[in-house]
Amino acid sequence: MEIIPAIDLIGGQCVRLTEGDFAQQTTYHSDPVEVAKQFEGLGLRRLHLVDLDGARAKEPVNLPVLARIARETKLHIDYGGGLQSSEAVRQAFDAGAQQITAGSIAVREPKTVQKWLKEYGADRIIIGADFKDNRIAINAWAEQSDLTLESFLSSFAQMGAKTFICTDVSKDGKLQGSSLEVYKELLKKFPDLQFIASGGVTTIEEVRQLRQAGLYGAIIGKAIYEGTISLEELVKEVR
């Protein structure tokens, strides 16, 4: 299982939100590049980079930070936030992202994302399936759509998507555990898809449970910054 540390960006700084709420923001580090280098120095290979300014602006804002991390580390970066056009996706790849995450645009304009899947391939386009109470959440999680999680996954699987970041919005940033049972159900229903767990991963034991359940990856953010999972423990899991 891929262990993927997360860096969320506001104003070029490394922050975390609770339940995606900009009013519940904690700043952890003024230089995300240093944080990324620390992850790489410990042997972690992946990075989930979220441009929260971009999500609000509906276009990428922190591309210079992405470019610096790509230039100064060898981390495999997936980048999301504000990718609402083909031009924005191209800019993200040009700045050094290996993959991008298509979030609310996948709900609003599935045909656009289908075009990206054809153009770049399913290996480079991750679909962000943010959910709350089994409904897909959109617009920086401010509202729920009418789509169920399963119908959303099914429709994109038919378009050729294979990797999905499934974030339980109600758990994100709360350090109260992830939606392990939801992921187990999804793996049963969609055995051919790759699911990355996100939201609420709190302990190293949970990381092991996600691995045993068959998750493709786990994104870990606040647990690292708050110290409920130590980087040393994570590195042992990676090895």
Automatic annotation (TrEMBL):
Major location category of this protein: cytoplasm
SUPFAM superfamilies tied to this protein: Ribulose-phoshate binding barrel (SSF51366)
Gene Ontology biological process terms in this record: L-histidine biosynthetic process; L-tryptophan biosynthetic process
Superkingdom, natural source: Bacteria
Keyword Flavoprotein: no
Catalytic activity: 1-(5-phospho-beta-D-ribosyl)-5-[(5-phospho-beta-D-ribosylamino)methylideneamino]imidazole-4-carboxamide = 5-[(5-phospho-1-deoxy-D-ribulos-1-ylimino)methylamino]-1-(5-phospho-beta-D-ribosyl)imidazole-4-carboxamide
EC nos: 5.3.1.16
InterPro entries: Aldolase_TIM, His_biosynth, HisA/PriA, HisA_bact_arch, Isoase_HisA-like, RibuloseP-bd_barrel
Coiled coil: none
Known pathway: Amino-acid biosynthesis; L-histidine biosynthesis; L-histidine from 5-phospho-alpha-D-ribose 1-diphosphate: step 4/9
Keyword Transmembrane in annotation: no
Active site: D8 (proton acceptor), D130 (proton donor)
Keyword entries, A-Z: Amino-acid biosynthesis, Cytoplasm, Histidine biosynthesis, Isomerase
Any one GO cellular component localisation term in the record: cytoplasm
Localisation: Cytoplasm
A single GO molecular function term of this UniProt record: 1-(5-phosphoribosyl)-5-[(5-phosphoribosylamino)methylideneamino]imidazole-4-carboxamide isomerase activity
Family indicated by similarity: Belongs to the HisA/HisF family.
Xref: NCBIfam families: 1-(5-phosphoribosyl)-5-[(5-phosphoribosylamino)methylideneamino]imidazole-4-carboxamide isomerase
Protein name: 1-(5-phosphoribosyl)-5-[(5-phosphoribosylamino)methylideneamino] imidazole-4-carboxamide isomerase
Organism: Rufibacter latericius
